[in-house]
Design brief:
mainly alpha, Multidrug efflux transporter AcrB TolC docking domain, DN and DC subdomains, Acrflvin-R, 10 helices, two-stranded antiparallel sheet, transmembrane, Efflux RND transporter permease subunit, Multidrug efflux transporter AcrB transmembrane fold
Length: 291
């Protein structure tokens, strides 16, 4: 039975590595022997004595029906149609083109029949719904921590405003690398918002420290930005370099790409946008330094 199974279905004997993929190597009989049932009786079976005998001498071949399998999904009898997409296409694009064509089929189904879309699209929607459910708690915790650190509602709100800056870079890099914005990329974008706000907290806190030390507000903004430029850039660069190996992953690649793009663009925008926002928010003018 073991030899028959390996001859027809195949037996994995080794693994071939190609890049970050592992491809199993199967040992099985030729295609012409497996495709013609009349050749099955003459299949040579090895014996302990070193000789080979036809399968018909050691077994009786009969044609019988196999027990059927009834697949269920959510306790309902289901027929599943699976397909893969061609190279160069994105799953959301393909799904968006297929769904309008399915509306007519869904409308013509008898009562009691359902037509649903599953797979990665369904998993992504389920994950996004779970994130949306926890988003209010996430915002409350973030605002509370910012208030404890900065001790000012205005400065905390200013840091929150910089959180979406990373979305620009994340979207740009996902478009360049033609990676869909799925659930994993959404997780990367949420993590990216925390990284951008961390840099903003460092810069805003440094500005306030300089003001408390007696510096005028205009020079405090400029000096704090110059002094914190190198630590912020090096921290962001270290995070980007750490994401390069992960960007080749089939599962976490979209998350790494969104974080890399968002950090690169978001860090630059933070160093330019946040000082200008601080000056505009608190109405800081250059003439304060002269006075």
């Amino acid at each position: 039975a073991h030899f028959l199974g390996s001859s027809l279905s195949g037996m994995q004997v080794s693994t071939y590595r190609e890049g970050n993929r592992q491809i199993g190597m199967l040992l099985r009989g030729p295609d012409e022997e497996r495709a013609q049932l009349d050749l099955l009786a003459s299949l040579a079976i090895p014996t302990p004595g070193g000789t080979a005998v036809p399968l018909s001498q050691v077994a009786r071949l009969e044609y019988v029906f196999e027990d059927g399998i009834i697949w269920h999904r959510n306790l309902l009898t289901t027929v599943t149609v699976r397909a893969d997409i061609a190279d160069g296409l994105l799953p959301p694009e393909v799904t968006g083109q297929i769904l309008p064509a399915l509306d007519g089929i869904r409308a013509a189904l008898p009562d009691g029949y359902l037509l649903e879309v599953g797979g990665t699209v369904e998993d992504s929607a389920r994950g996004q719904n779970s994130i949306k459910a926890g988003m209010p708690l996430f915002l409350v915790v973030v605002v509370t921590l910012l208030m404890l650190q900065l001790r000012s509602f205005s400065r905390a709100a200013m840091v929150l405003v910089t959180a979406p800056l990373g979305i620009i870079g994340a979207t740009l890099f996902l478009l360049i690398f033609r990676v869909p914005f799925g659930f994993v990329a959404l997780l990367g974008t949420i993590a990216l918002a925390g990284m951008i706000m961390r840099n903003s907290v460092i810069l805003v806190d440094q500005i306030q420290q300089d003001i408390d030390a007696g510096h005028d507000r205009w020079h405090a903004i400029i000096d704090a930005t110059v002094r914190r430029f190198r630590p912020i850039v090096l921290t962001a660069l270290a995070a980007v370099l750490a994401m390069i190996p992960l960007s080749r992953s089939a599962f976490y690649g979209s998350m790494a790409i969104s974080i890399m793009g968002g950090l690169i663009v978001g860090t630059v925008l933070t160093l330019v946008f946040l000082p200008a926002l601080y000056a505009a928010w608190f109405r800081v003018r250059p003439d304060e330094a002269a006075s």
